[in-house]
Specification:
Helices cover 65% and strands 4% of the residues. The strands form two sheets. A five-stranded parallel beta sheet has the order 2-3-4-1-5, with helices on both faces. By secondary structure, the protein is mostly helical.
Length: 942
Amino acid sequence: MTLMERERELRRIDELLASARAGEGATLLIEGTAGIGKTALLAAAGERAAGQGVTSLTARGGELERDLAFAVVRQLFEARLRNEPAEVRNELLSGAAELAAPVFGMAPASADAGVVGAVVHGLYWLCSNLADRGPLLLAIDDAHWCDDASLRFVSHLARRVTELPVLLVLATRPALPGRTDPVGRALSGVSPEVVRLGPLSERAVGALVRQALAADVEDEFCRACARATAGNPFLLSEALIGLRADGVRPTAAEAHRIDALRPETLTRAVLTRLARLGPDAVRLARCVAVLGPAAELRRIAALANLGLGQAADLVDALAHDGLVTAGSPIEFAHPLVRGAVYGDTAEALRAVAHKQAARMLAADAMPSEQLVPHLLAAAPDGDPWVVAELRAATADALARGAPELAAACLERALAEPAEPVLRAELLTRLGGALGMLNRTAEAADALRAALDLTSDPDRRIEITMDLGRLMVMTGQGHQALELFEGARRSSAARPGGVPRRILVNVAWGRLTALEPPLDWMRQLDSVAPQLRGGNDDDRMALSLLAFGGAATGDRPSAKVARLAALAGDGPLPPEPWILINLASAALAVADHLPPALDLLDRGLATARRLGDITAFAYLSVLRSHTAHYAGRLLDAEADAWAALSLAKAESQDAPLAAAVLVDALIDRGDLPGAQRILTEQGIDGDQPLSMLIAHFIHTARGRLRLGQNRHRDALADLLPCGEGLVAAGCVNPGFAAWRCPAALAHLALGETSAAQKLVDEELALARAFGAPRAISAALRTAAQIEGGQASIELLQEAVTLLDGSPAQLEHAQALVYYGSAVRRTGRRADAQEPLRRGLDLATRCGARALAQRANDELVAAGARPRRAALSGPAALTASELRVARMAAAGSSNREIAQALFVARRTVEVHLTSTYRKLGITSRQALRDAIDHATDPPTDARD
């Protein structure tokens, strides 16, 4: 049927295709009721794409295909990949795109697919690599039937498609009231362009009626057709078929007969046409509906219990009547036709047919995943074969990165029901799959049920640990602790005592429940002499002890650093994020900053390899915090921006990323920018100290308020935060520096005794722990309170203490404060040397405000300091400098983009800006320019 009255939509598609050719992609959502012409419009879009030199990759969701992992994704890309020469295919699946290879069976299943998002990240880069070879149109019809795994890819791509030469078009039906809208959920927060297809006008319906019947069809008859079909092209087509079959003459006198062909009668009309072909045709059509994409002629014949020749004749009859399309597999002319035929079969009979279809596909040696749609639709009857196939399909789904399908298979296997001996295993695996999907309440229920069915002590411990860790991740620390403590008590009488793993999890549970660390550290200290770091449990115990020591200051910084170094030594465990978090924090607090950054860099490399965006964002927060300690402010800012751009708005990582960015911007001298981040991220109001790391938000905001001269507001942030930390036993100044800025706020308000009390406590605690950075910060603050010669002695001690320290920003501050104090005594010549050193360090750290202060002090001391650089590498933003360094080191644009989890165009934009600012045109010139960029000294001690 001719496409009518879609000129406006086609013009817009042409415009979007042109934009894609120019490198700017988009997401277009075509919405309309069934039969309104979405498929025809997509087909026209494909023709127009071909005319503009845009490659079309198409897919169609289906009711049965919803139960296949990445079914729509495979339709989009698999044929293209398989048709390419091996060398081209390998290039398309290189780099991060390699993570997508298991989806297409082009690489062995990898444990890395267990990271939710890894495969989707790989698919994004496959799409990007394909787009490098020419602009793409990705067209997905019937997206409302898209499988969940493919929808995750759609969601991921839609958020990044503007930076690719790709037009993503989704055709879907409007969501029904009270029903979930999978496409809307996938595109939440994206704001795609939406085209809503309306009905055809009476004029267009008349033209189509005359085209199909006769040129002289009377107007009243045409108007009746328009009323009866509500301007729906497919319903009109079906009505015209029915009118021809019934011999209705297209005259005004016959118009009343058309009213019986309204949309609600479509099912009856289809079934009537089908019944005319006889009972064998009805049975065959029902088998086509059951088999879906597996509907090859021989299978249809076998399922319908018909001879092959008879089945072929019936298929021809159905095709002639417009109910199915010829070809292989045999398909219905429209999903509405399939729905009418499928719905006309009793549910019990459908279930039996699906079971038979599954057996048939298994006999054809089809993979277990191809059986899944039929097994899920079959009625449970205690068949061990069904359970075995569903277990195999579960493993395949997890290997492909589709925990949604794995969970569905496991739930169906349990309903079969599985034999009692298998139920605990299936429930445990179900808990894991549901946990990957963040369906935590259901995951916990599954694990509890598995625990109830498990008698083996070792397995009970494993399940308990899994359940407890799940509860920790969902903020149920106290409930998790009860589980861990129960496991500890029940295993106390075992030979060899409480297993190390239980002790580690008890400690972890207590830490997340904000219990004072000294309580749980005693238990770990009792086994500390046996800890050698030879296994993951030992290393976790070491990292917990190191972190506890760093938070409490209960042992010298050197011992904390030794524990943390031992924990981080050797290959990282399969899920290293907690260990890296704890050990890197301990190293940083102990002023072993280069090893801390190295451990975080190893974690970030692992996150890149796994395509784990969540882990990358969180570790970037930690790296920003640590780089700030080290005085690498450009790195700290770049890491924070990276984390903020990747963190999901509803996750805890977004406010943490904002906090470390605020910290970096304060010392970069950009207080307005820091305030803007606070406001935009919605963390300008009350924030509970619900977890230890939340103090990042409070201290950063307090420091900003101090810089804004909002001293009372600063205290409102810092003092409650400090009280919460002290109540949790975390008193070490290097762990959370809240006392010094609070003391300065008190001092500014004239509350000297309160300021003195805080700084005395800070200095005593810092000296006891022995990390120079925290001692220096306390000495600087004490100097501001003391004044006079006493302040000079305190600052001189700070400068001496930090000589050779990796804490370059604190060293620069100590030098500038010391030089300023000396200059104020009138010893202008003596002040110049520390001020010059401070200016140099501050400039190299990127601390613009401190550098300006040092410059002003030097002028006051009678010196002639150099002018601050306003061009060259110093003019680059933090993100530009990061990209420039990677490019100068030899990384390609694609490698940089994959390493930073950004689109390639983002890299290109940064490099274009960098080349402009540096006045260069080549990578070699970039290498020469970046060689002169300022970096903190590399000869600082650990």
